[in-house]
Design goal:
The chain is of the alpha+beta class. Helices cover 25% and strands 32% of the residues. The strands form two sheets. It has a six-stranded antiparallel barrel. It has a two-stranded antiparallel ribbon with strand order 7-8. The radius of gyration is 19 Å and the shape is elongated. The structure holds zinc ion. Zinc ion (ZN) binds at residues 97, 101.
């Protein structure tokens, strides 16, 4: 559901299976770690037992989303849960994700279209972007990239997220 409802943070789901500290749900808003973006955290509340479990990590393995529960799950198949995603953390990740796209765009404008994103790490407090370029960038170039990137932010453009063709 996280692709269809990127700004929703609360949902109901049914436990399909559990193993070790992991819980698999029939649907989820928890974004797994991927593309340099850390996993969401949050909680699962067991509706019948009035018990809340902490989701400390989320991983995708072969299309299956695994929710890692702090101190083991102790949760049974078929349980109905209310999921809550830590919104502040997710919004910080979203902002940093958008910021890395903006910085790459600005760098391409300043340095040339050979510039590509070589890697990225987004966090809650900061993000890092690695770009390809044939030499060290100068202070003047860095300032120009910064100026362009800040201008794009100030324009407050609407963000459209979509899957691009690989080519
Ligand atoms: Zn992206």
């Amino acid at each position: 559901m996280y692709y269809d409802e990127p700004s929703a943070f609360d949902f109901d789901a049914v436990v399909l299976d559990t193993f070790d500290d992991f819980v698999i749900l029939d649907k989820t808003l928890f974004f797994p770690e991927g593309g340099g973006q850390p996993a969401d955290t949050g909680s699962l509340r067991l509706k019948e037992e009035n018990k809340t479990l902490k989701v400390q990590d989320v991983q995708e393995v072969e299309g299956v989303i695994l929710h890692k529960i702090e101190n083991g799950s102790g949760i049974s198949k078929g349980s109905v849960v209310s999921g809550h995603v830590d919104a502040e953390r997710r919004i910080a990740h979203t902002r940093h994700h958008s910021a890395t796209h903006i910085v790459v765009c600005a760098a391409r404008n300043v340095l040339g279209s050979h510039v590509w994103q070589a890697g990225a790490q987004k966090g809650e407090k900061r993000a890092r972007i690695d770009i390809t370029h044939f030499k060290r960038i100068s202070d003047a170039e860095r300032k120009e990239i910064e100026l362009l990137a800040n201008r794009m932010v100030m324009e407050d453009k609407e963000i459209q997220a979509r899957f691009e063709d690989r080519e």
